[in-house]
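Entry 14. Ran structure prediction on the chain below.
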Amino acid sequence: MQKTGLVLEGGAMRGLFSAGIMDVMMENDITPDGVIGVSAGAAFGCNYKSRQPGRAIRYNKRFARDKRYCSMQSFLRTGDLFGAEYAYHIVPNQYDIFDNDAFEQNPMEFWVVCTDVETGEPVYKKCDEGGDITFDWVRASASMPVVSRVVELEGYKLLDGGISDSIPLRAFQRRGYERNIVIMTQPQGYEKHRSRFMSIIRMSLRRYPKLVEAMAMRHLMYNEELAYVEQEVRRGNTLAIYPDKQLPIGHVSHNPDEMQNVYDIGRELGLRKLDKIKSFMGLR
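Output, C-alpha coordinates:
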Protein backbone atom coordinates (compact mmCIF):
# COMPACT_ATOMS: atom_id res chain seq x y z
CA MET A 1 0.00 0.00 0.00
CA GLN A 2 1.32 3.43 -0.93
CA LYS A 3 2.30 5.74 1.92
CA THR A 4 0.68 9.18 1.76
CA GLY A 5 2.44 12.30 2.98
CA LEU A 6 1.77 15.95 3.72
CA VAL A 7 4.64 18.32 2.86
CA LEU A 8 4.57 21.78 4.43
CA GLU A 9 6.89 24.58 3.34
CA GLY A 10 7.65 27.47 5.68
CA GLY A 11 6.98 31.16 5.26
CA ALA A 12 6.72 32.40 8.86
CA MET A 13 3.23 33.86 9.43
CA ARG A 14 2.15 32.82 5.92
CA GLY A 15 2.05 29.38 7.52
CA LEU A 16 -1.33 30.27 9.01
CA PHE A 17 -2.68 29.73 5.49
CA SER A 18 -1.40 26.15 5.68
CA ALA A 19 -2.89 25.81 9.18
CA GLY A 20 -6.31 26.71 7.78
CA ILE A 21 -6.08 23.99 5.13
CA MET A 22 -4.78 21.46 7.66
CA ASP A 23 -7.65 22.18 10.04
CA VAL A 24 -10.18 21.50 7.27
CA MET A 25 -8.37 18.24 6.50
CA MET A 26 -8.34 17.18 10.17
CA GLU A 27 -12.00 18.07 10.63
CA ASN A 28 -12.80 15.82 7.67
CA ASP A 29 -10.76 12.85 8.96
CA ILE A 30 -8.12 13.07 6.25
CA THR A 31 -5.13 11.31 7.77
CA PRO A 32 -1.85 11.05 5.85
CA ASP A 33 0.70 8.48 6.96
CA GLY A 34 3.24 11.20 7.64
CA VAL A 35 3.82 14.95 7.79
CA ILE A 36 7.09 16.76 7.07
CA GLY A 37 7.38 20.44 7.92
CA VAL A 38 9.90 23.20 7.44
CA SER A 39 10.02 26.21 9.76
CA ALA A 40 6.42 27.42 10.21
CA GLY A 41 5.35 24.21 8.49
CA ALA A 42 6.91 22.29 11.37
CA ALA A 43 5.62 24.69 14.04
CA PHE A 44 2.03 24.37 12.84
CA GLY A 45 2.20 20.88 11.34
CA CYS A 46 2.94 19.22 14.68
CA ASN A 47 -0.70 19.90 15.59
CA TYR A 48 -1.75 17.40 12.91
CA LYS A 49 -0.08 14.52 14.74
CA SER A 50 -1.46 15.73 18.11
CA ARG A 51 -4.94 16.04 16.53
CA GLN A 52 -5.49 19.65 17.61
CA PRO A 53 -7.27 21.60 14.85
CA GLY A 54 -7.59 25.29 15.67
CA ARG A 55 -4.61 25.40 17.99
CA ALA A 56 -2.19 27.25 15.67
CA ILE A 57 -4.47 30.19 14.96
CA ARG A 58 -5.68 30.31 18.57
CA TYR A 59 -2.32 30.75 20.28
CA ASN A 60 -0.91 33.03 17.59
CA LYS A 61 -3.81 35.43 18.01
CA ARG A 62 -3.71 35.20 21.79
CA PHE A 63 -0.01 36.06 22.01
CA ALA A 64 0.20 38.33 18.95
CA ARG A 65 1.09 41.41 21.04
CA ASP A 66 2.90 39.67 23.89
CA LYS A 67 6.49 40.93 23.84
CA ARG A 68 7.69 37.70 25.42
CA TYR A 69 6.34 35.77 22.45
CA CYS A 70 7.70 37.79 19.52
CA SER A 71 9.25 41.25 19.64
CA MET A 72 12.38 43.32 19.13
CA GLN A 73 12.63 43.45 22.91
CA SER A 74 12.86 39.65 22.94
CA PHE A 75 15.51 39.78 20.22
CA LEU A 76 17.62 42.41 21.99
CA ARG A 77 17.29 40.67 25.34
CA THR A 78 17.72 37.03 24.30
CA GLY A 79 18.95 36.96 20.69
CA ASP A 80 15.69 35.40 19.50
CA LEU A 81 12.89 37.36 17.83
CA PHE A 82 10.49 34.57 18.82
CA GLY A 83 11.20 33.90 22.49
CA ALA A 84 12.87 30.49 22.69
CA GLU A 85 11.66 29.65 26.18
CA TYR A 86 8.33 31.49 26.15
CA ALA A 87 7.08 30.67 22.63
CA TYR A 88 8.36 27.11 22.42
CA HIS A 89 8.08 25.85 25.99
CA ILE A 90 5.94 28.01 28.27
CA VAL A 91 3.08 28.49 25.79
CA PRO A 92 2.68 24.76 24.85
CA ASN A 93 3.29 23.54 28.40
CA GLN A 94 1.22 26.09 30.33
CA TYR A 95 -1.11 28.28 28.27
CA ASP A 96 -2.27 26.45 25.13
CA ILE A 97 -1.44 22.89 26.06
CA PHE A 98 0.08 20.68 23.39
CA ASP A 99 -1.40 17.17 23.65
CA ASN A 100 1.78 15.11 24.07
CA ASP A 101 -0.13 11.88 24.71
CA ALA A 102 -2.12 12.17 21.48
CA PHE A 103 1.08 13.07 19.61
CA GLU A 104 2.86 9.94 20.84
CA GLN A 105 -0.09 7.60 20.36
CA ASN A 106 -0.83 8.70 16.79
CA PRO A 107 1.03 6.35 14.39
CA MET A 108 1.42 9.22 11.89
CA GLU A 109 5.10 10.08 11.41
CA PHE A 110 6.16 13.68 11.99
CA TRP A 111 9.41 14.97 10.50
CA VAL A 112 11.07 18.37 10.78
CA VAL A 113 13.76 19.85 8.54
CA CYS A 114 16.61 21.94 9.97
CA THR A 115 19.87 23.23 8.54
CA ASP A 116 23.25 22.25 9.96
CA VAL A 117 25.06 25.60 10.19
CA GLU A 118 28.49 23.99 9.97
CA THR A 119 27.82 22.10 6.74
CA GLY A 120 24.95 24.08 5.20
CA GLU A 121 23.17 20.77 4.65
CA PRO A 122 19.65 19.74 5.70
CA VAL A 123 19.03 17.60 8.78
CA TYR A 124 15.85 15.50 8.86
CA LYS A 125 14.52 14.50 12.27
CA LYS A 126 11.61 12.14 12.94
CA CYS A 127 9.96 13.25 16.17
CA ASP A 128 8.25 10.44 18.06
CA GLU A 129 8.18 11.88 21.58
CA GLY A 130 6.01 14.75 22.68
CA GLY A 131 7.26 17.44 24.99
CA ASP A 132 10.32 19.64 25.12
CA ILE A 133 12.60 17.62 22.85
CA THR A 134 10.17 17.90 19.95
CA PHE A 135 9.51 21.56 20.81
CA ASP A 136 13.25 22.21 20.51
CA TRP A 137 13.47 20.49 17.12
CA VAL A 138 10.55 22.58 15.92
CA ARG A 139 12.25 25.71 17.28
CA ALA A 140 15.45 24.81 15.42
CA SER A 141 13.53 24.31 12.19
CA ALA A 142 11.87 27.72 12.60
CA SER A 143 14.90 29.69 13.83
CA MET A 144 15.30 32.32 11.14
CA PRO A 145 18.93 33.35 10.54
CA VAL A 146 20.18 36.69 11.89
CA VAL A 147 17.17 37.11 14.22
CA SER A 148 17.64 33.78 16.03
CA ARG A 149 20.41 32.11 17.96
CA VAL A 150 21.91 28.90 16.66
CA VAL A 151 20.16 25.96 18.35
CA GLU A 152 22.52 23.29 19.72
CA LEU A 153 20.67 19.99 19.80
CA GLU A 154 21.73 16.33 19.81
CA GLY A 155 25.23 17.15 18.56
CA TYR A 156 24.08 19.54 15.85
CA LYS A 157 24.18 23.32 15.51
CA LEU A 158 20.97 24.21 13.71
CA LEU A 159 18.94 26.98 12.09
CA ASP A 160 15.92 27.28 9.77
CA GLY A 161 15.34 24.25 7.55
CA GLY A 162 14.21 26.47 4.69
CA ILE A 163 17.81 27.50 4.07
CA SER A 164 18.77 24.05 2.77
CA ASP A 165 15.51 22.27 1.84
CA SER A 166 12.52 24.59 1.55
CA ILE A 167 10.06 22.13 -0.01
CA PRO A 168 11.14 18.64 1.13
CA LEU A 169 9.02 16.62 -1.30
CA ARG A 170 12.01 14.74 -2.69
CA ALA A 171 13.24 13.99 0.85
CA PHE A 172 9.86 12.53 1.81
CA GLN A 173 9.73 10.43 -1.34
CA ARG A 174 13.12 8.96 -0.39
CA ARG A 175 11.53 7.91 2.90
CA GLY A 176 8.86 5.90 1.14
CA TYR A 177 6.10 8.51 0.76
CA GLU A 178 4.93 7.91 -2.79
CA ARG A 179 1.79 10.09 -2.87
CA ASN A 180 2.07 13.55 -1.36
CA ILE A 181 0.03 16.67 -0.82
CA VAL A 182 2.27 19.76 -0.85
CA ILE A 183 0.92 22.96 0.71
CA MET A 184 2.72 26.04 -0.56
CA THR A 185 2.58 29.54 0.94
CA GLN A 186 3.39 31.44 -2.26
CA PRO A 187 1.08 31.57 -5.31
CA GLN A 188 1.74 29.39 -8.32
CA GLY A 189 4.27 31.05 -10.62
CA TYR A 190 6.21 32.67 -7.77
CA GLU A 191 9.97 32.86 -8.32
CA LYS A 192 12.45 33.46 -5.52
CA HIS A 193 15.32 35.90 -6.05
CA ARG A 194 18.67 36.24 -4.33
CA SER A 195 18.33 37.78 -0.86
CA ARG A 196 18.81 41.53 -0.66
CA PHE A 197 20.33 41.08 2.79
CA MET A 198 23.37 38.97 1.90
CA SER A 199 25.80 41.59 3.23
CA ILE A 200 24.08 41.48 6.63
CA ILE A 201 23.91 37.69 6.49
CA ARG A 202 27.63 37.42 5.70
CA MET A 203 28.51 39.69 8.59
CA SER A 204 26.16 38.08 11.12
CA LEU A 205 26.99 34.47 10.20
CA ARG A 206 30.64 34.78 9.19
CA ARG A 207 31.55 31.98 11.61
CA TYR A 208 29.58 29.60 9.38
CA PRO A 209 30.79 30.01 5.78
CA LYS A 210 28.97 26.90 4.53
CA LEU A 211 25.70 28.32 5.87
CA VAL A 212 26.36 31.67 4.20
CA GLU A 213 27.06 29.83 0.94
CA ALA A 214 23.77 27.92 1.26
CA MET A 215 21.90 31.17 1.85
CA ALA A 216 23.52 32.79 -1.17
CA MET A 217 22.31 29.88 -3.31
CA ARG A 218 18.93 29.45 -1.62
CA HIS A 219 16.91 31.05 -4.40
CA LEU A 220 18.30 28.57 -6.93
CA MET A 221 17.53 25.63 -4.64
CA TYR A 222 14.00 26.91 -4.00
CA ASN A 223 13.18 27.49 -7.65
CA GLU A 224 14.52 24.04 -8.56
CA GLU A 225 12.30 22.50 -5.90
CA LEU A 226 9.30 24.41 -7.26
CA ALA A 227 10.00 22.93 -10.68
CA TYR A 228 10.29 19.47 -9.13
CA VAL A 229 6.90 19.83 -7.43
CA GLU A 230 5.32 20.72 -10.78
CA GLN A 231 7.04 17.75 -12.42
CA GLU A 232 5.63 15.39 -9.79
CA VAL A 233 2.17 16.94 -10.14
CA ARG A 234 2.31 16.11 -13.86
CA ARG A 235 3.32 12.54 -13.01
CA GLY A 236 0.17 12.25 -10.92
CA ASN A 237 1.74 11.36 -7.57
CA THR A 238 1.58 14.86 -6.05
CA LEU A 239 -1.20 17.31 -5.30
CA ALA A 240 0.10 20.86 -4.87
CA ILE A 241 -2.07 23.48 -3.17
CA TYR A 242 -1.14 27.14 -3.67
CA PRO A 243 -2.79 30.35 -2.44
CA ASP A 244 -4.63 32.07 -5.26
CA LYS A 245 -2.56 35.23 -4.80
CA GLN A 246 0.10 36.73 -2.53
CA LEU A 247 -0.97 36.28 1.08
CA PRO A 248 -1.65 39.61 2.87
CA ILE A 249 0.78 39.14 5.76
CA GLY A 250 4.49 39.58 6.38
CA HIS A 251 7.01 37.26 8.03
CA VAL A 252 6.01 38.75 11.38
CA SER A 253 2.61 40.08 12.42
CA HIS A 254 1.24 41.46 15.67
CA ASN A 255 -2.27 41.90 14.26
CA PRO A 256 -4.76 39.15 15.25
CA ASP A 257 -7.21 40.23 12.53
CA GLU A 258 -4.53 39.93 9.88
CA MET A 259 -3.67 36.45 11.18
CA GLN A 260 -7.32 35.39 11.16
CA ASN A 261 -7.74 36.62 7.60
CA VAL A 262 -4.82 34.55 6.29
CA TYR A 263 -6.03 31.51 8.23
CA ASP A 264 -9.53 31.99 6.79
CA ILE A 265 -8.10 32.19 3.27
CA GLY A 266 -6.54 28.78 3.91
CA ARG A 267 -9.78 27.37 5.30
CA GLU A 268 -11.79 28.63 2.33
CA LEU A 269 -9.36 27.10 -0.13
CA GLY A 270 -9.24 23.87 1.86
CA LEU A 271 -13.02 23.59 1.67
CA ARG A 272 -12.94 24.41 -2.03
CA LYS A 273 -10.33 21.70 -2.65
CA LEU A 274 -11.81 19.18 -0.21
CA ASP A 275 -13.26 16.81 -2.80
CA LYS A 276 -10.01 16.89 -4.78
CA ILE A 277 -7.98 16.18 -1.63
CA LYS A 278 -10.26 13.28 -0.67
CA SER A 279 -10.05 11.83 -4.17
CA PHE A 280 -6.27 12.12 -4.20
CA MET A 281 -6.10 10.36 -0.81
CA GLY A 282 -8.34 7.56 -2.08
CA LEU A 283 -11.24 8.49 0.19
CA ARG A 284 -13.76 8.74 -2.64
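The mean pLDDT is 96. Will compare against last week's run tomorrow.
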